[in-house]
Specification:
Layout: H1 16-19, H2 28-34, H3 58-64, E1 73-78, H4 81-92, H5 98-103, E2 115-118, H6 123-129, H7 133-141, E3 149-151, H8 162-167, E4 172-174, E5 184-192, H9 196-206, E6 212-220
The protein binds zinc ion (ZN) (2 copies).
Residues 3, 5-6, 8, 26-27, 29-30 line the site of one zinc ion.
């Protein structure tokens, strides 16, 4: 077996514990590099690295003036050089076995939630990429989810600035309203950049009166 990230051979210790456990597709070194957090002061809510001039996180201030926030935001990785490359290969170069690498860092269960839902991607993106990069990680971990939302988004978000993004019409629409009311929902996204995408998704979900919404993001840019 090889490490899915660096493609070096993995040598498993064949002791009694490993014998009955599926081997993880990542070497020790890559595991360490991917999970390394860069130093610096961070926003305690969204985990963004703040500049010295910021007394509070300007991204969170910007969002809270426009959207109802989630209860909390959990983030699996920092967006360091290694994880950035991991996501680039996974999302844009078709290296879809990396879903299993990202899935390794998820918990087995998110039992405190009634519904787990990934941020949807547009039909155009689905045709181009062939998979929803967030849902595929949940699949790799065997986590059940519901596609509560759909999207009509056409333009790539990375091509737009923060203000342009927030001014845009909300591209999401509700597919399964009956599964939202009174439920505790975990919204899962791949990379939390400005946070606008996930807040627009929540804006739609909040209209169907969920009990609570939290956010899990694989990485925080
Ligand atoms: Zn490796
Ligand atoms: Zn923040």
């Amino acid at each position: 077996m090889i490490c899915y990230y660096c493609h070096e051979a993995l040598f498993a210790q064949m002791d009694i514990i490993n014998l009955f456990r599926a081997q993880e597709p990542l070497c020790e070194n890559c595991r360490k590099e991917i999970s390394r957090w860069r130093t610096g002061r961070r926003c305690t809510f969204c985990h963004r690295r703040m500049t010295d001039e910021e007394s509070e996180c300007l991204d969170c201030v910007f969002l809270s003036e426009r959207y109802q926030p989630p209860g909390k935001v959990t983030c699996l990785f920092d967006y360091n050089e290694v994880s950035k490359m991991l996501f680039h290969r996974y999302k844009f170069m078709g290296d879809c076995v990396l879903a299993e690498v990202i899935a390794m860092f998820l918990r087995d269960r998110y039992g405190e939630y009634d519904v787990i839902t990934p941020i949807p991607i547009s039909t155009a993106r689905m045709l181009e990429r062939g998979y929803n990069q967030t849902a595929m990680v949940l699949d790799a971990k065997g986590i059940k989810y519901e596609e509560l939302l759909g999207t009509s988004r056409i333009k790539r978000q990375s091509e737009l600035g923060k203000n342009a993004r927030s001014r845009q019409e909300n591209p999401f629409f509700i597919k399964k309203a009956a599964e939202i009311e009174g439920r505790r929902i975990l919204v899962v996204d791949d990379i939390y950049t400005t946070g606008i995408t996930v807040h627009q998704a929540m804006e739609k979900l909040y209209t169907s009166r969920p009990a609570a919404i939290d956010v899990l993001t694989f990485s925080k840019a």
